[in-house]
Amino acid sequence: MEHGLSRLPVSFGDFLQQGDYRLHSRFSRALNYANEEHLVSLVTPEVGSGPTNIVLSDISWIDASEIEVAADLVRIGGRAVALPPERRYHSGLDFAVAEVHRSVQHLAVFSKVLLESSPPLSLVFLLDETRKNIFSSPFDRQLAARVSEAWNHLVRLDVSKGVSRMLGTGYGLTPSGDDFVAGWISGLHLMAGLFHRPAAEEMGLIRLQLTGGSPISRNLFWCSLHGRYVERVRDLLQAIGSGPHGEVERCARDVLGIGETSGADFSTGLVACLSLHGVLG
After folding, report:
1. Which of 92, 103, 110, 270 is most buried as measured by Cβ atoms within 10 A of its Cβ?
2. Which DSSP string do the residues of 113-168 spell out, in sequence order?
3. Which helix (H) or strand (E) holds 172?
4. How far apart are CA 25 and CA 255, in angstroms?
């Protein structure tokens, strides 16, 4: 039974797709609902805004197995939560005032923070081979070997094979390899948006490989392909394009704090893409 409108959300994403969704996974700070094509996440403010997130001040009351997203509200069990335009989170990037020279400097700052501050079992060993020794257990060594195989294809810019080998590899709600691929896609967006280099053909090759995975990974890829990002990543990429140096370092550390290794794996894919395409030295 409808109990009227509940309190307003803190924010809601600008890439939400209307439709019915069923509960996919539940965590203390996030409830993920999926259908055959898309994902919606009801999250706490600690998780933050995202293209398909609805941020609520509290999610402990939610026990609904299904939700419905409409044009201006989301129905959660017996409650309807309004989605007013002023609460919409804008997940895209604006590089209208970006400067190429400054962006290159900012990418160098970002790369330095990544190499110095990434968690031990992240894929940053692809950029610093001395870290590969940390992968000591049989599973870790197998992961490192598979990722290295994918990397060897990417180094030769055999992107289709490299991406297909990387997908689904590793730990986490989104495997390390999936985060890396999302970062690589984002690197292509920076190549096109900041450095005016062609990226559409490579983006198309990658899109052809993204046919499986969990709803969470599929949503990550879908948003990345469309240049839509969670708040911490958006702020980093925007700072690389047009922010002060100090902002880049702060945002980089914020991104590295995403998940166990997710932020670092995404960042590794981004830096790797720009390095192998000659944007970074």
Report:
1. 270
2. HHHHH--TTSGGGGT-GGGGGG--SHHHHHHHHHHHHHHHHHHTT-HHHHHHHHTT
3. none
4. 23
CA dist., res. 127 & res. 271, Å (int):
9
The residue among 90, 265, 107 whose CA lies nearest residue 195 is: 107
By the 8 A CB rule, do 29 and 19 touch?
Answer: no
pLDDT digits (tens, 9 = 90+) for 65-119: 999 999 999 999 889 999 999 999 999 999 988 999 999 999 999 999 999 999 9
- Look at the alpha carbons of 71, 76, 81, 86 in this order and tell me if their dihedral is positive or negative: negative
Long-range contacts of 262-265 (CB under 8 A, 24+ apart): 262/172, 262/173, 262/174, 262/176, 262/179, 263/179, 263/232, 263/233, 264/114, 264/118, 264/119, 264/122, 264/123, 264/124, 265/122, 265/123, 265/170, 265/176, 265/177, 265/179, 265/180, 265/183
| Residues of the chain with confidence (pLDDT) below 70 | 1-6
| Residues 65-78 pLDDT 10s | 999 999 999 999 88
Parallel/antiparallel/unpaired status of strands 73-76 and 39-43:
unpaired
Q: What is the CA radius of gyration of the chain?
A: 19
